[in-house]
């Protein structure tokens, strides 16, 4: 255990509280037990307290079937921990006067529009980082998963339906991405470069990047894993560059401990203020309509009347689960990174640790709470999930009657043809993702999608209306955008 490793937070030297030291000493055993229970391939964690790294270790392997083991310098994809990390980048720009949290997006990205002109005119960096813009939950993710580039995602945002402005808290990746890209543009650079030059480099975070290619080039790198029915297997590559401010960062726990120390020290590093305390504290204060979210940070309290917390989880269905939690009143923070799809391991360990620090005991069965909650979020989607193909279906029309290119302004073209196996085939996205269809009944077909937000086992109904020349796609209909018209 790396007790007593000092960090340059510019704080006076002082001893660590015994509760934090004892909790850090207990954490490795809890981590190993949870890995044994779940079979998760690899995990790394770190604890920061009073400007010191009390613990920075890794357990398990970087990839199933290979010998490389996880250590404190193994880089993991952070997924949505990229949001608070990115909010720290923005907070530095706010402190230096480049922008404010209330800078209008219209002034940063003049071409960006939402479906309501008044919302477009008033929309600010703060609105997007606090998820109160009115965008629907996860709006825009489907475009990113199809392979559409960032500029197309920004352009098509105007087609998404909106909730009333600043009245709802709906979590998106599109929002912080638009805000982050806009702030970087004001600084005359791109998001990854701004993050590197203004935060990662000054903190000495040498293994941290907001570019996927740089993550992929690392030798000591964790590979994402998904469950395959019998265990864990490497998942598909997840390149989150189009939404980098929201989910595209990667780092090691040793590097992330430096960032956590900066947060606990209210922006001080190496004897000076690196990030102005005011903008940083704004980010970690409640601003969402329900009071649970700041600017890129989850905020709350540990229990009724208990100390306040700042935290965030990150998850890629294709193989990343991460979490950090901090209690400023106790000057303590913990981070856990894993290379598996989200089942509750990082959140459990973080909350177990904080319980030990603050309460001296585990107050709840956190593993059951988090694992059951995430299981619901990871359930397959589609109205036909679990249903067998009909035994006496209404026959389809001649298959060539369904062939054609079906389009809508938001998703682009869904192209239908007949494959070499004689089955209808669907191709979607700018770099076509191809799926075979199976006949269900009449003009209804199904396919089995696979993507970040469509868990394994998902089933999508495809409903053709030959007379009208339309195709309705169930899994893309959530925002009322699932109807395609034959070109």
Write a short abstract of this structure.
This protein is an alpha+beta fold and 487 residues long. Helices cover 29% and strands 21% of the residues.
Topology summary:
Layout: E1 5-6, H1 18-38, E2 42-49, E3 52-60, E4 76-77, H2 82-95, H3 105-108, H4 117-122, H5 125-129, H6 141-146, H7 150-156, H8 174-186, H9 191-200, H10 212-216, E5 225-227, E6 232-234, H11 244-247, E7 250-251, H12 253-264, E8 268-269, E9 272-273, H13 277-283, E10 298-301, E11 308-316, E12 320-327, E13 332-338, H14 345-358, H15 366-377, E14 404-408, E15 412-418, E16 424-428, E17 433-436, E18 438-441, E19 444-447, E20 460-465, E21 470-473, E22 483-486
Antiparallel strand pairs: 1-3, 2-3, 2-13, 4-7, 5-6, 8-9, 10-11, 11-12, 12-13, 14-15, 14-22, 15-16, 16-17, 18-19, 19-20, 20-21, 21-22
Helix pairs in contact: 1-14, 2-9, 2-13, 14-15
What can you see in these coordinates?
The protein is of the alpha+beta class and 487 residues long. It contains 15 helices and 22 strands. A hairpin with a 2-residue loop joins β8 and β9. The termini are far apart.
Residues in β-strands, percent: 15-25%
Strand order of the largest sheet: 17-16-15-14-22-21-20-19-18
- Shape label: globular
**Could you tell me the mean pLDDT?**
95
CATH architecture of the largest domain: 3-Layer(aba) Sandwich
Q: Give the biggest sheet.
A: 9 strands, antiparallel
When the domains are counted, the total is 2
CATH topology of the largest domain: Beta-lactamase
